[in-house]
Write a structure and sequence with these properties.
Elements (H helix, E strand, L loop, with lengths): L6 H17 L2 H15 L3 H8 L20 H13 L5 H17 L7 H9 L2 H7 L1 H10 L5 H7 L15 E8 L11 E7 L5 E6 L4 H14 L6 E4 L8 H9 L3 E4 L3
Parallel strand pairs: 1-4, 4-5
Antiparallel strand pairs: 1-2, 2-3
């Protein structure tokens, strides 16, 4: 515990309180004990023994500082791996490190000291989040907030019954994740578009679930379709409901709708 006052001041305080403490009532003793413990840095039970004269006052024990296991070099390596993993949280980054770290070394992006490498692979998910706390706060402040409520007001809801015999070019769009049974780390997606009228289906790969990549893939599909793209219906995912997608559909005369949340 941190020392609050000097040794000489503590001794004077004990002399001043000793007689008053013995003659005080219970409530006053409780108040004096609390104040003395806060000023002296003593544990409550030891402070009680000092005021009763059972022991001579001594310097309060100082708790030894816990050595830091993860230094700044380890934190900087973690930041690089976190950025390479598309900023996933600690619970997802922890199992990914065993694959990501060797891959970064194999391709010449890292050459770690064996001690730092061992610490990285042994780091817990909670430690990862703790070491990244300051970095996340900075990057979160720089990232623009998605105006999901405003976008939901702009993009109307459409159910399957609302199509009412559409012309070819009215399509439903969704993402299919190729991750097997475990949603962890980074994995490839397929962007799927199915025409309501004809059943014509197009699919194209995406390396990540990202709104900008969705628009780029949609442009490739649109220019290859045998009919004009008239309407798109999506779910409420952020990769579909974003300013980039709304602007793209507006510029190309595509009606954008969404399913119920």
């Amino acid at each position: 515990m941190e020392t609050k006052i000097t040794k000489s001041a503590r001794a004077e305080l004990v002399r001043a309180l000793h007689d008053r403490y013995k003659s005080a009532n219970r409530a006053e003793k409780m108040r004096m004990l609390n104040e003395f413990g806060a000023l002296s840095g003593y544990h409550r039970k030891y402070a009680l023994r000092v005021l009763n004269g059972a022991v001579e006052p001594r310097e309060p024990a100082q708790s030894p500082a816990r050595p830091r296991l993860y230094g700044e070099a380890t934190r900087q390596v973690l930041i690089v791996l976190w950025e390479a993993s598309d900023r996933v949280r600690g619970k997802r980054l922890k199992p990914l490190l065993a694959v990501l770290l060797p891959a970064m070394e194999r391709h010449g992006h890292m050459n770690l000291d064996p001690a730092i490498r061992s610490k990285m692979l042994g780091m817990s998910a909670a430690t990862i989040d703790r070491l990244l706390r300051d970095t996340k706060s900075v990057t979160r402040a720089d990232r623009p907030r998605r105006n999901m409520l405003g976008l939901r007001r702009i993009v109307p809801v459409r159910t399957f019954a609302d199509w009412k015999g559409p012309l070819p070019g009215s399509m439903e769009m969704d993402l299919v994740g190729h991750c097997g049974d475990v949603i962890r780390g980074s994995y490839v997606h397929s962007l799927m578009l199915t025409d309501i009228a004809s059943g014509w289906t197009e699919c194209t790969p995406l390396v990540a679930r990202d709104g900008t990549l969705v628009v780029e893939a949609l442009e490739r599909v649109r220019t290859a379709l045998p009919f004009p793209l008239r309407a798109l219906d999506t779910d409420n995912g952020a990769e579909f409901l974003n300013e980039t997608m709304v602007r793209y559909c507006t510029n190309h005369g595509i009606e954008l709708t969404r399913s119920r949340p």
